[in-house]
């Protein structure tokens, strides 16, 4: 699988679901080098009523660290060497498109379903929002 | 992901042209066969041109024939790509999904808006239904937000809200 997307920058949003990790693998297949693959996790905004916030045991900083820990654990394999990671907070659909603009990505690669969105619905909510908002091509993978 | 066949549905709109450019490139780079599919929406026969008493039986045939001629003019943008044109009659989204299923294509490349996509809805209804229903990966391509030569806005006309009158 050579250079379909030669020189292109690929953004892969992950929620650490099996399908989203497969999407990273597929993106690595498509991209010239792992450094062209940008992996993004969007964490939910911390709400004042989130238990950890009330007791000040969780903040954006600690959450960011947790996500980064998950990145290094999930993508420990050598083939992920060079992949660029991002962590953002907010609405997943919006943040994915914003980040794609910010890093001038050429393509978004994502599964139709992540952790949220019921299987019986044919398209996940985040996938749908990305499809609607993105100005760049979106590759929807079905696993 | 290995590409052996790519399906690019077209409705002869600039949006599907953008998808065709992408599909041709992908097919050429991966040595895949490109299927160019147009679906003649039979329901159009109920409302196109003829506004009289209802359905005209030969309208479907006329539409099919005219679309066939239009489809003959659609070719991959990259020379040397093996391709096949197919003109089918049916409901666009359903027919595209079924065709992809039958031929076991590896990828569908579709414009995110076609002729029926109202741009305020941000995504065309056919594209959306295909993404929802297809069993294979779908690449949606949004037409770059530029005005093509044919669509140049005549001078003297300003488009935009809030113009003082």
UniProtKB/TrEMBL annotation, chain A:
Residues 8-142 form the UspA domain. InterPro entries: Rossmann-like_a/b/a_fold, Universal_stress_UspA, UspA. Pfam families: Usp. Belongs to the universal stress protein A family. This is Universal stress protein.
TrEMBL record, chain B:
Residues 4-142 form the UspA domain. It holds the Pfam family Usp. Signal peptide: none annotated. Keywords: Cytoplasm. GO terms for cellular component: cytoplasm. It is found in: Cytoplasm. InterPro entries: Rossmann-like_a/b/a_fold (IPR014729), Universal_stress_UspA (IPR006015), UspA (IPR006016). Belongs to the universal stress protein A family. This is Universal stress protein. The lineage of its organism: Bacteria, Pseudomonadati, Planctomycetota, Planctomycetia, Pirellulales.
């Amino acid at each position: 699988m050579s250079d379909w997307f030669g020189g292109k920058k690929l953004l892969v949003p992950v929620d650490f679901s099996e399908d989203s990790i497969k999407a990273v693998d597929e993106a690595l297949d498509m991209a010239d080098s792992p450094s062209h693959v940008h992996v993004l996790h969007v964490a939910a905004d911390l709400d004042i009523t989130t238990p950890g916030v009330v007791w000040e045991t969780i903040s954006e900083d600690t959450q960011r660290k947790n996500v980064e820990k998950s990145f290094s654990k999930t993508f420990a394999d050598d083939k992920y060497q060079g992949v660029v990671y991002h962590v953002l907070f907010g609405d997943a659909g919006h943040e994915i498109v914003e980040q794609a603009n910010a890093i001038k990505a050429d393509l978004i690669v994502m599964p139709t379903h992540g952790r949220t969105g019921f299987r019986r619905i044919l398209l996940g909510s985040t996938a749908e929002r990305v499809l609607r908002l993105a100005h760049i091509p979106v590759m929807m993978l079905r696993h | 992901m290995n590409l052996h066949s790519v399906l690019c549905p077209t409705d002869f709109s600039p949006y599907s042209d953008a998808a065709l450019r992408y599909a041709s490139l992908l097919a050429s780079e991966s040595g895949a066969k490109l299927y160019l599919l147009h679906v003649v929406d039979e329901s159009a026969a109920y409302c196109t041109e003829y506004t009289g008493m209802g359905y005209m039986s030969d309208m479907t045939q006329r539409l099919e024939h005219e679309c066939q001629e239009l489809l003959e003019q659609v070719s991959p943008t990259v020379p040397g790509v093996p391709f096949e044109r197919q003109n089918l009659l049916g409901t666009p989204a359903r027919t595209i999904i079924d065709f992809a299923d039958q031929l076991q294509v590896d990828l569908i490349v579709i414009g995110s808006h076609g002729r029926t996509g109202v741009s305020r809805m941000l995504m065309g209804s056919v594209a959306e239904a295909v993404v929802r229903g297809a069993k294979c990966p779908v690449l949606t391509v949004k037409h770059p937000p530029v005005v093509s030569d044919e669509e140049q806005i005549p001078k003297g006309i300003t488009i935009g809200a809030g113009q003082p009158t």
